Structure formats: C-alpha cells, structure tokens
Amino acid sequence: MQFASVDFTNGIIELTNLGTSSVDLDRWRFCTHDFDTRRRYTFANGLNGLTVEPGTSVFLHVNNDAPSGDPDRRDISAVGGNFATPFGTNAFALQIFYPAANNNVSFGNSELIADHLQWKQADDPTGQTEDRTDQAVATGVWSAEGDFVIVGADAAVIRLIDASGDEAGSPSEYAIELICQPDVNGDGALDIDDFSDFVSAFFAGSTRADQNVDGLLDIDDFSAFVSGFFAGC
Q1: Could you read off the pLDDT of 23-82 as tens digits, one per residue?
Q2: Least confident of 24-38, 75-89, 133-147, 213-227
Q3: Do 5 and 94 touch, CB atoms closer than 8 A?
C-alpha cells in the first residue's frame, strides 16, 4: 500500500494497492505529525472492512464529507482516534502501519510501517513533524530524514508518479498539481509573464514547468501549458 495522492483542495488522502494481491486493511492504523503535534493515532478498528484490490484505491476524507454508500471512501471521524490538524500544505508527516502476527500494531516496530509521506513549504520549520521519520528510513519506505516533498501555498495535490510499487519512497517519486497549473509564477494572474516564466522554468528543470504532472519535462508540457493557459483558471 502506498500514499498515491494528498488532495489539499478537497481534504482527501488516497491509498493505492500497487501490488498483485488484495490487501485487507483490518487493524491498520495511521500515525500523523505536524509542527505542533506528534504521534496522533487512529483507532485500531478504524479501517476495518476495507479491502483494496490490486490497482485500486481507498480514500480518507479529512473534512468528513465522504459520499454515502461508497465503500472505498471513509470519513476521518469514522476512522476514529486522533489525526494531526490543521491538514494543509504546512509541515506534515503521516505513516500507515499494518498489524503484526498478533493482530496488533506496535508503533515502535519500524517493520510495520507500510508507507510514509512528509511534505512542507520550503521555509517551514519542521517542529515535531519528523518524530517517526527515522523509523520510516530504517525500514526503507522513506529516503532520509530532512527529505520533504516541497509544496507551495498554491499546491492542490501531491501525486505519486512512480507506479513501480517498490515502496521505497522519496520526494522525487511525487509531483505537485497546482491550484492553477499554468500560473507558473504564482501571482494569481494568467498573463504574458507566465509564458516567460514557463520557458525559464522548463530549461532550468524546475517542477513548476511540469504542466501535465507526470514527473517529466518534455514537449507534452508545452502543449499542456498552452491548453491550460487559454482555458483559464
């Protein structure tokens, strides 16, 4: 199981099964941290009843607005326990733990971390955010302490672009979808400056030029930028 996307606009965390066998999430638990708080645990039965088939996802709704009747979507209030808040683009880290053979999660056991993801804005202090990052690094699901997916205040979604399923996470495996993707300079307006800044960002290798959010900088980004620009935001 891997964190496939974090949607800041709608407050949704997506977990995807990139393996070849179904995964039963009974007794799986989240642990979350931000600048001020650490080790916020969800309840042991909060994900019970969710089974994730290969190539499919389940979705956690932080704003408690999951559509009724959809078995793959669950409100954070229904999961229960505690979750670090507020949930947004400031420094944040989350892990998903699976149960040991005794059907319980020991949060001190690094081997039980199925996946880890952490992000922050470039100049954010990290505070308590990396409380369990060393465990994620030790078990091989995160690259290193101090490695964050860097987002801006205009980030809409963090999206996994590495579908290998190797679970060896790092910031390079994620791309950022912006609230207004062709607003390359982030000034809230679409104008000629964005054309210039897009070209500069492209040749500088900046992720701001990754207009189709596929982790690559190529001719498709030019097409996506022009289409997005004229479509407007």
Answers
A1: 999 999 999 999 999 999 999 999 999 999 999 999 999 999 999 889 999 999 999 999
A2: 213-227
A3: no
Mean of the per-residue pLDDT values of the chain: 91
**β-bridge partners, 169:** 142
Residue 204 makes CB contacts below 8 A (sequence gap 6+) with none
What is the value of pTM for the model shown?
Answer: 0.85
In DSSP terms, 120 is beta-bridged to 150
Question: Cα(26)–Cα(51) distance, rounded to whole angstroms?
Answer: 8
Amino acid code (one letter) for 154: D
DSSP sequence for 50-76? -EE-TT-EEEEETTS-PPTT-TTEEEH
Query: Is residue 116 within 8 Å of 93, Cβ to Cβ?
Result: yes
Q: Which residues contact 129 (CB under 8 A, 6 or more apart)?
A: 33, 34, 35, 38, 91, 92, 93, 118, 120
d(CA 56, CA 15): 9
β partners of residue 59: 14, 73
The amino acid at 125: P
Could you tell me if 90 and 120 are in contact, meaning their C-beta atoms sit under 8 angstroms apart?
Answer: yes
